[in-house]
Amino acid sequence: MQDTYSVVKRVVPEGETMCGLCSRLRRGVLYRVAGEVGATKIALGHHRDDILETFFLNLFFGGRMKAMSPKLQSDDGKHVVIRPLAYVAETDLQAYAEIKVSPSSLRSLRLAADAAAKAREGDAARVGKAPSGPGGIDVPRALASRPLAPDGPTHAFG
């Protein structure tokens, strides 16, 4: 197993975000291990809230409209990354886990969920109003170079 954390700590300056590099290194390990065992599909556990969080982080801190895709072909074409939980809310997963998970695993899940809830205080109202799929995005308005009046044209091209 590769120690990606030590690499990230050594390369990323103190106070800078480690997320991008850590993600790439972990993905590299997943691709390598998948190749070693002959797997062509890699399933990740990102849920809807993770994808929305990534979208807004990219939008507000990276200045681009970008999020994780539910299905992604690797650059070399050898692997397909899938996110089967992409359209499932975190709260639905927690409710399901309470029904299906053993008591010891459930305690760990609750501790993790409590920590996540603290970190996301105040986000529930915003995430609940976020579109649940691509159909909920008004693309012309999102891509408009100038604000559109609510009762004005339905596109920014005229």
How would you describe this structure to a colleague?
- With about 160 residues, the protein is mostly helical.
- About 50% of the residues lie in helices and about 5% in strands.
- The chain contains 7 helices and 3 strands, in the order ααβαββαααα.
- It has helices at about 5-10, 20-35, 50-60, 90-100, 105-120, 125-130, 140-145; strands at about 40-45, 70-75, 80.
- The chain has a 3-stranded mixed β-sheet, covered by helices on one side.
- The longest helix is centred in the first third of the chain and has 19 residues, at about 20-35.
Brief sketch in words of this structure:
This protein has helices at 4-11, 19-37, 48-62, 90-100, 103-119, 124-129, 139-143, and strands spanning 41-43, 71-73, 80-82.
